[in-house]
């Protein structure tokens, strides 16, 4: 009896302390600059699942549900563009069962866009970036439908990096330029950084101001290699399914406290 009362009291105290800290944190960041473009590396789903005795599929399911919540937090903050690292070209090397599950999850995610109230209320334009031709037809069809349904939206943008690799993106941009030179549409001395950026998958978007990676790993793993030259990087020691609103807000606070010089 005493033990259960103690546990209940502890939970209430923890919940109250969390709310107090959340309010304090919000007061710290609400008047500061909010990054226009945030990149998210959704890392740690499998390790989260292993930690609590679940299989990797359930870890990915939990990560999928958490993504919807985090995107809502980003839009509430006023973040204009979010780019998520959903599936890399290297991820195709994982087991057949895991890849198939991830492809079905991707299909479900893009299909859910059609009826997602948050997407339509916030006027979020959705697009897939990467070597989309490598994806199964059923995923490509779902992507086409999601992109078509949101193409007129202009308040926010959600880039889903799928079958994506930063090196592959740079190679593909270089190939496009090479073809244009070969066809006489572009002269070699006209090639500069702006021309190159226009051939990237993210053409039309500003470079990310802030890139957040969960799971405690401190590397980009090929995510937005060209675009991240002056991005602020924040590595969170929490698995993706466990990320809380205060973790996102703390990353925003870290961003606000840094002095961005852009090489000056």
TrEMBL record:
Tagged with keyword Lipid biosynthesis: no
What catalytic reaction does the record list?
A: geranylgeranyl diphosphate + 7 isopentenyl diphosphate = tri-trans,hepta-cis-undecaprenyl diphosphate + 7 diphosphate
Q: Which controlled-vocabulary keywords does the entry list?
A: Magnesium, Metal-binding, Transferase
- EC number(s) on record? 2.5.1.89
Residue numbers annotated as active site: 43, 91
Q: What class of enzyme is it?
A: transferase
One biological process GO term for this chain?
polyprenol biosynthetic process
Specify which residues bind Mg(2+) according to the UniProt entry for this protein: 43, 232
This entry's Gene Ontology molecular function terms read: ditrans,polycis-polyprenyl diphosphate synthase [(2E,6E)-farnesyl diphosphate specific] activity; magnesium ion binding
Protein family per UniProt: Belongs to the UPP synthase family.
Q: What does this protein do?
A: Catalyzes the sequential condensation of isopentenyl diphosphate (IPP) with geranylgeranyl diphosphate (GGPP) to yield (2Z,6Z,10Z,14Z,18Z,22Z,26Z,30E,34E,38E)-undecaprenyl diphosphate (tritrans,heptacis-UPP). It is probably the precursor of glycosyl carrier lipids.
Q: How does it assemble?
A: Homodimer.
- Name this polypeptide is given: Tritrans,polycis-undecaprenyl-diphosphate synthase (geranylgeranyl-diphosphate specific)
Ranked from the top, the taxonomy reads:
Archaea, Thermoproteota
């Amino acid at each position: 009896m005493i033990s259960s009362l103690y546990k209940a009291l502890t939970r209430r105290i923890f919940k109250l302390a969390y709310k107090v800290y959340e309010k304090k944190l919000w007061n710290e960041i609400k008047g500061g600059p909010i990054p226009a473009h945030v990149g998210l590396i959704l890392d740690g789903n499998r390790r989260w699942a292993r930690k609590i005795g679940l299989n990797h599929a359930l870890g990915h399911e939990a990560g999928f549900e958490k993504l919807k919540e985090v995107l809502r937090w980003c839009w509430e903050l006023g973040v204009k563009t979010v780019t998520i690292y959903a599936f890399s070209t290297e991820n195709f090397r994982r087991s057949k069962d895991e890849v198939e599950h991830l492809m079905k999850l991707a299909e479900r995610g893009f299909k859910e866009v059609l009826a997602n109230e948050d997407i339509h209320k916030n006027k979020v334009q959705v697009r897939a970036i990467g070597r989309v031709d490598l994806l199964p037809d059923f995923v490509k069809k779902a992507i086409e439908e999601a992109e078509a349904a949101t193409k007129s939206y202009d308040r926010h943008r959600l880039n889903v990096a799928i079958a994506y690799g930063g090196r592959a993106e740079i190679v593909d941009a270089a190939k496009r330029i090479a073809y244009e030179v070969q066809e006489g549409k572009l002269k070699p001395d006209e090639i500069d950084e702006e021309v190159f950026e226009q051939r990237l998958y993210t053409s039309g978007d500003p470079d990310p101001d802030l890139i957040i990676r969960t799971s405690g790993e401190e590397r980009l793993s090929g995510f937005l290699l060209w675009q991240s030259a002056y991005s602020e990087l924040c590595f969170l020691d929490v698995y993706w399914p466990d990320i809380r609103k205060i973790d996102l807000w703390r990353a925003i606070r870290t961003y606000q406290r840094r002095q961005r010089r852009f090489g000056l």
